[in-house]
Amino acid sequence: ITFKRSNSFELVAEEVAAVRNGVGLTETTGFAKYEVTGPGARAWLDRLLPNHIPPAGRLTLSPMLNEQGKLIGDFTVGCLTGNSHGVTGVGADGASGVASWDDERFYIFGSGAAERYHQRWFSSQLPADGSVTLRTLGHQLCGLSVAGPQARDVLAKVCDLDLSTDTFGFLSFTEAFVGMAPVMLGRITFTGDLGYEIWMPAQYQAAVYDLLMEAGAEHNIRLFGLQALNSLRLDKSFGSWATEYRPIYDPFEAGLGWTVRLDKGDFIGRDAAAAAKAAGPERTLVAFTVDIGEGDAAADVLGDEPVWHNDEVVGWVTSGGYSHHSSASVALGYVPSAVANADSTDGESGFEIEILGVRRSATRLERCLWDASGEAMRQ
User: Fold this and answer.
1) Phi then psi for 210, rounded to 5 degrees?
2) According to the model, what pLDDT value does residue 85 have?
3) Three-class DSSP category at 172
4) Nearest 5 degrees, angle CA 70-CA 73-CA 77?
5) Strand 181-186, strand 195-201: pairing
6) pLDDT value of residue 99
């Protein structure tokens, strides 16, 4: 056990390199998965979430707010329509077997750790007229994610779809077959690369895994885990639930203002969100690179470290770690908006982050470390 570099450091670096330079595979079954159906499903979601609800065949990223306009969720939402080929395994009448809804079906993907918390909130908001049916899919729906510049080449070998960008672009969402397994397929990944999330009934996961590993062998496909995923998301300055996104922050502080559509009509927390936007954030989520030293002295942030500016503690770290691809120690955290872009009196950045009792020089990032234009995930 160590607060510094663990013996997994080099292995994680290898996994990161495999994804950024080729292709990697990881499991996403631990995500929370919900299905929303019924004639009132779209209207219900439109009130529940501040972003626009996607049309059929698309995904949307949306936070969820409470009445005070604070963040209580961070989701990917997908919409399908037409007869299902049985991915979720339950029909419109509730019977086991092939689903057969002719209307829109929505799928919400979010933090597995917050599943019960979100279930309680969803249930408290359901309409009394029964027009919306909510199901928590749990481990009956399993997931795999394939990511990296060669992800399309691997998946195309075993999938029945045309995966070209013109046909299946970023944030597309559809049903498909991987081999003979029915799946839901989304063009999205938390790594920031070209990538796909594949959702399937539990009984098909092993077969889909085998097909992907076999198809990826010539591309040197490699499994990667949560430490590698954390390193990859730090390349992009991506925040995550329970660290950067929590009920003590509003979406404008957290850099999620672009997901809050104040012009779309009423939704939970709209008035509070509008007031927060008008007032402007008092604090801002920022990303830093940190000079952590070398050798035995090297230690990355874990979270909750003090952020100093010009010899005063002004904020705190929410999460961070080592970005292997960018060869940089990264910290995300909140500081007052008034000092977020400020310079110190001596012309340096003035920021330091205290790690294990030692104040380390920190530089605020104006752009994320890798692919700031987002071209890789849209290619």
Assistant:
1) -60, -45
2) 62
3) strand
4) 130
5) antiparallel
6) 41
